[in-house]
């Protein structure tokens, strides 16, 4: 296993951020581009939001998406268990 961390500089809402992680640089960059796109959509919906508010709203939206997917996954797993009986 490779213990080296990848270092990449990414951009969120026009600001540069150095990121270190275990993933490949390409993966980190792809995630950052996707997240920046989500943040831009929220920023465009209300130009009065600060960068911090945009980040919080984006996090809230992502958490909501995650919890919905988690519930869907649990329901699907329950259906699979029911069919296996």
TrEMBL record:
Keywords: Cell cycle, Cell division, Cytoplasm, Septation. The keyword Cell division applies. Pfam families: ZapA. The keyword Kinase does not apply. InterPro entries: Bac_CellDiv_Activator, Cell_div_ZapA-like, Cell_div_ZapA-like_sf. It is found in: Cytoplasm. One of its GO terms (cellular component) is cytosol. GO terms for biological process: division septum assembly; FtsZ-dependent cytokinesis; septin ring assembly. Homodimer. Interacts with FtsZ. Activator of cell division through the inhibition of FtsZ GTPase activity, therefore promoting FtsZ assembly into bundles of protofilaments necessary for the formation of the division Z ring. It is recruited early at mid-cell but it is not essential for cell division. This is Cell division protein ZapA. It comes from Anaerosporomusa subterranea. The lineage of its organism: Bacteria, Bacillati, Bacillota, Negativicutes, Acetonemataceae.
């Amino acid at each position: 296993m490779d213990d080296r961390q990848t270092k990449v500089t990414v951009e969120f809402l026009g600001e540069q951020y150095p990121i270190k992680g275990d993933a490949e640089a390409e993966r980190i960059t792809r995630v950052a581009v996707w997240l920046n796109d989500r943040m831009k959509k929220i920023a465009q919906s209300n130009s009065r939001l600060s960068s911090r508010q945009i980040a919080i709203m984006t996090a809230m939206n992502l958490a909501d998406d995650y919890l919905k997917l988690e519930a869907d996954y649990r329901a699907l797993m329950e259906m699979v268990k029911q069919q296996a009986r």
